[in-house]
Amino acid sequence: MTMDIEPHDQALTERDDDLLTRAEASEFLKRFGIRMKPATLARAWSTGSNGPPCRHVRGKPFYPRDVLRAWAESQITGLRRSSREPAGTSERALREQPRSSGHDHGSA
Question: Exposed, middle or buried, 54 (CB in 10 Å: 0-12/13-18/19+)?
Fold first, then answer.
């Protein structure tokens, strides 16, 4: 008798120290809204660009789940009203700021 794991139970079987292949890492990143194909992960590694760090075991790349999660979370900014606002603006700060009408006539 085989026991199938339901998707909602999947998180219970995942461990932070699991090593994911590029294909598994690609699927895992989708949970965070990050779409990176395995080939893109390979390119990010080979060019030294802003991709997630990985570990090599006998020449094959693996992504530790906890490191991949931390990298994915570091890629996500807070809510912003425009590209002019700094990426670190908190949601609370946005709610507390009065919205500009766009008609700043300057009173300096």
Answer: buried
Question: CB of 31 within 8 A of CB of 11?
Answer: no
> Are 24 and 38 spatial neighbours (Cβ–Cβ below 8 Å)?
no
Assess if residue 58 is contained within a domain: yes
Please give the single-letter amino acid code of residue 44: A
Residue 36, in any domain of the structure: yes
Model confidence, pTM: 0.64
Looking at residue 55, the DSSP 8-state letter turns out to be E
Structure confidence by residue, pLDDT tens digits, 36-85: 999 999 999 888 888 999 999 999 999 999 999 999 999 988 888 888 87
Domain range for 24 is 15-76
AA identity, residue 74: S
In-domain check, residue 86: no
